[in-house]
Amino acid sequence: MRFFFHAAFNGHRYRGWQRQSNVGSVQEVVETILGGILKEKVSIMGCGRTDAQVHASQFFFHLDIKAAWDYDLLFRLNKQLPGDIAVFEILRVEDNQHARFDATQRQYDYFIHTYKDPFLNSISTLYQETNLNLDAMKKAAALLTQYDDYYAFCKTPDNHRHTRCKVSAATLFADKKGDRLRFQISADRFLGRMVRFIVAKLLLIGRGELSVDEFESYFITRQTPKIFEPAFPQGLFLSKVIYPFLDIEPRTSFTEIGHREDQWIIV
User: Fold this and answer.
1) What is the pLDDT of residues 116-164, one digit of tens each?
2) Which residue from 59, 76, 241, 264 puts its CA 20 to 30 A from 187's CA?
3) Catalytic site residue from 51, 64, 148, 188
4) Does the annotation count 51 as an active-site position?
């Protein structure tokens, strides 16, 4: 029997979702607690990997088990999970439905604040910038839906069978004061650190250190920059995952400090 778990986590304390040796991961915490409740060793499969300190306001993982439990597993699981990991729903699915490989679209949001704020430190990235050229950044973001080869936006492109990603939407938002930015991108797949690298280049464009034409040349030439410097991880959220058989609205809706949905205006 296979079950999908609809979850979310604040990744600030973790080295990413994926279980790794000698470092703390979200997967390890969930597997340990879930295995203790079920009284058996469990192995779960997540809908994707996240870098250290990256968050997920919507995340799915699946679990295979021989027989269903006869108690309130959702309540027991949330009672034992730490406060920065939550499970919202447990859903029975077909045995061949896969949390990672069956996802047809993922959405990421990247948050930036341009002033020092201790309450935003773990859920947004501080870039103390003034007078960013938002129009130029918007023009560069609009190019993302026009190309489908992101070879130059991956740290290790040759490790992938191909580097094609179909970006369906890329939008830049700002708050009413203009000192908070939000970049949102949706695609059928993402390469390693691709979103963070795009954000880093958008910031260079905003500062006037990179032109929109130079940004577009990465797609045309497929040449990876000599220095690969992605944006910092803590502002990045995996915010939406869609399957052909499952499309659930996120439960968190960025309710933490400063991430209210009603504050953002499209640039």
Assistant:
1) 999 998 899 999 998 899 999 999 999 999 999 999 999 888 888 999 9
2) 264
3) 51
4) yes
